[in-house]
Design brief:
Strand content: 25-35%
Shape: globular
Strand order of the largest sheet: 1-2-3
Pfam families: DDE_Tnp_1
Protein name: Transposase IS4-like domain-containing protein
Number of domains: 1
InterPro entries: Transposase_11
Organism: Bathymodiolus thermophilus thioautotrophic gill symbiont
Helix content: 10-25%
Largest sheet: 3 strands, antiparallel
GO molecular function, one term: transposase activity
Order of helices and strands: EEEHEHE
Distance between the termini: 45 Å
Length: about 110
């Protein structure tokens, strides 16, 4: 057991999460950028709130023009998210997960 004391916070919106073997209290942020890496939008959610529940919201807030390829990490790889991009007339650039027990195919 970790003997470090847990500090109290009056912040009513922050939450606990467990990641990489550690408990963390606070928030997580999602940052959207343009092709040059300039920040378009930053959103903050409680630490225990998955960014995948906010995928469509994050994409809409980025203000992408039709036909733009949206790049996202493989945690967002799902049929629903691919269809959400298609509905907004955006190109799917979500990284794909490697199938278990198989080599990664070439795109």
């Amino acid at each position: 057991i970790d003997s470090n004391p847990i500090q109290y916070s009056d912040d009513k919106d922050a939450r606990w999460t467990f990641k990489a073997g550690k408990y963390t209290y606070g928030y997580s942020s999602v940052v959207t950028t343009d092709a040059n890496g300039l920040i378009n939008k930053a959103t903050t959610h409680p630490a225990n709130d998955s960014e995948m529940t906010h995928f469509e919201e994050n994409v809409k807030q980025a203000g992408n023009q039709k036909g733009v390829r949206v790049l996202y990490d493989k945690g967002a790889a799902s049929q629903a998210n691919s269809e959400a991009l298609k509905a907004q007339k955006l190109r799917d650039g979500i990284m794909r997960k490697k199938p278990k027990g198989k080599q990664m195919s070439h795109w």
